[in-house]
Amino acid sequence: MGPEIYQIDPNRCTECVGHFDEPQCVQVCPVSCIPVDPAHAESKETLWEKYRRLQAAAATPATR
Ligand code: SF4
C-alpha cells in the first residue's frame, strides 16, 4: 500500500518456471493483486524457453 507501483516485466518473468512449481510473487502477495495478464499468456513450453534464454544470457559476460 502506498504511492509506489511495481510492474512485472513480461520479458523477464517465467511465472517461476525453472525455479518453483508456483509463481512465488502470487503465493506471497497478501491481497491477491497479481493477476495473469491475458496479453501475455504463455505456455509452459514457452516459459521454459524463456527461462533457458535468460539463464544463457546471465551466464554470458556483457560486452561493451
Ligand atoms: S516471482 Fe516468479 S511469477 Fe513473480 S514476477 Fe518473478 S518470475 Fe514472475
List the helices and strands and how they pair.
Elements: H1 24-28, H2 44-59
Bound molecules: iron/sulfur cluster.
Iron/sulfur cluster binds next to helix 1.
Q: Extract low-pLDDT stretches.
A: none
Largest sheet, described in full?
none
Number of domains: 1
The proportion of residues in beta strands is under 5%
Structural class label: mainly alpha
The coarse overall form would be globular
* Amount of helix: 25-40%
Rg, alpha carbons: 14 Å
Number of helices: 2
Kindly state the number of beta strands.
0
Give a list of the ligands. iron/sulfur cluster
Task: Write down the secondary-structure element order.
Answer: HH
CATH class: Alpha Beta
- Give the overall average pLDDT: 92
State the separation between the terminal residues, measured CA to CA: 39 Å
Level-2 CATH architecture: 2-Layer Sandwich
Query: Which fold does the CATH topology refer to?
Result: Alpha-Beta Plaits
